[in-house]
Sequence to fold (75 residues):
Amino acid sequence: MEWRLFATLAEAAGDTEVAVDADGDTVGDAFDALLAAYPALEAEVLDAEGDLASHVRLLHEGRDPFAEAEGFDST
Fold:
């Protein structure tokens, strides 16, 4: 799975584009793999409850899985 990161997320990961191997097929599996590979991102993308922070926009194939599909369970 390839990720494009912007602003503080790119700074935390050390690059604007990163690739990770995900175990599973869902957006959540890929997101978990991203955070495992780049733990510094957690402070930038998760809120105090461990949910996706409200200021973070995650797109999967150009679409918002939280608005158009099943969020982290989207494939």
Notes: The CA atoms of residues 25 and 75 lie 6 Å apart.
